[in-house]
């Protein structure tokens, strides 16, 4: 099954994580990363079985599909790294 990596833990990232936790999103989450690590870890800790917080490099390495939910400022650099990893 395709594992999803989520970059960003704002409104969209949180909605994706909540959907996965509730079963509405059937793909497992390989991990989450965010520019605000502490805030993301606090949010993830609210779940019984949260996805792991990972560095961007580890997230790209473990995910089959990377979802950008961090905002436009990161798109170009993220795309380079994700495409270089053939994701």
Question: In terms of per-residue confidence, which ranges show pLDDT below 50 for 5 or more consecutive residues?
Answer: none
**What gross morphology would you assign?**
globular
Radius of gyration: 12 Å
Indicate the percent of residues in helices: 40-55%
Order of helices and strands: EHEHHEH
Q: Write down how many β-strands occur, each being a DSSP E stretch of 2 or more residues.
A: 3
Q: End-to-end distance, in Å? A: 15 Å
Q: What's the helix count? A: 4
Strand order of the largest sheet: 2-1-3
**Quaternary state of the chains:** single chain
Major sheet summary line: 3 strands, parallel
| Structural class by SSE content | alpha/beta
Mean pLDDT: 95
Strand content: 5-15%
Task: Tell me what you see in this structure.
The protein is α/β, with parallel strands linked by helices and 87 residues long. 43% of the residues lie in helices and 15% in strands. It contains four helices and three strands. It has a three-stranded parallel beta sheet with strand order 2-1-3, sandwiched between helices. Helix 1 links the parallel strand 1 (4-7) and strand 2. The radius of gyration is 12 Å and the shape is globular.
